[in-house]
Specification:
2 domains, about 0% helix, Jelly Rolls, about 240 residues, 8-stranded antiparallel β-sheet, single chain, mainly beta
């Protein structure tokens, strides 16, 4: 029997804002593992963006990333057979890689599944807290590039208090997760823990009065990416 297809914030042509501190945690099939579903197309195997929380001592079965996995460790220590990764680690596990995640002390991660472009095979492992940020396009901005492939680009951006950026258009869309502080634009105010997704060709004029640190991905929400098939149609292991 084909599993139920969930469609959560599945229209990539409309803006979405989620304050994850006010969202509900949903249990996963693995004991001690919960998630907040930010967007999702599929069932337990899905194109998904989520916050995933592992309770101390919990683990997840060995699985292969048939659609690729990208994540940032927000709290605690995430572990697998390849090492231990504390807060600030940014990881990309390309299509075809596998691991068996676990945590001794517990951890929380921001994770994206089934969102790799065809041909993107570069693994990434960056300790962002030990990395140097380069000057941005305006005074008060620091940028740490994380990954780039074709139209897609991901980075951490640090905003000093009082920084303002120019009005601009997001060709291919923009996705932001606020890691620290408060990010702002003319559409709203987004405190730490807020996830913002803006569609292709959306515009804004961002700023930050108190300063902030954000994860930002651009160029990955082109129109054709809004019509992805349900990954559950394929035979794959459960994904968080």
């Amino acid at each position: 029997m084909k599993e139920e297809t969930l469609r959560i914030n599945a229209d990539f042509g409309v803006p979405v804002v989620v304050d994850t501190h006010k969202a509900d945690w949903i249990s996963s099939p693995s004991s001690g593992v919960e998630r907040i579903m930010l967007d999702r197309i599929g069932g337990e195997v899905a194109r998904a963006t989520s916050i995933v929380r592992f309770q101390p001592g919990s683990k997840f079965p060995m699985h292969t990333h048939n659609g690729g996995e990208e994540f940032i460790v927000l709290e605690g220590v995430f572990s697998d057979e390849h090492g231990d990764f504390g807060p600030g680690f940014y990881m990309r596990n390309p299509v075809g890689t596998s691991h068996t995640p676990f945590t001794e002390e517990g951890c929380t991660i921001f994770v994206k599944l089934w969102q790799f472009q065809d041909g993107d095979r570069e693994p990434v492992n960056i300790d962002t807290r030990a990395s140097v940020f380069a000057p941005g396009l305006v005074d008060g901005l620091g940028v740490l590039p994380l990954h780039q492939y074709l139209t897609e680009s991901a980075a951490l951006v640090r905003w000093q208090p009082g920084t303002h950026f120019n009005r601009h258009t997001h060709f291919g869309g923009e996705e932001i997760f606020v890691l620290e502080g408060t990010f702002q634009d003319e559409h709203g105010t987004y405190p730490s823990g807020t996830w913002v997704r803006s569609p292709d060709r959306s515009q804004h004029t961002p700023f930050s009065d108190e300063g902030c640190l954000i994860y930002v991905k651009v160029g990955h929400l082109l129109e054709e990416n809004g019509t992805l098939s349900d990954p559950a149609e394929r035979t794959l292991p459960v994904a968080v």
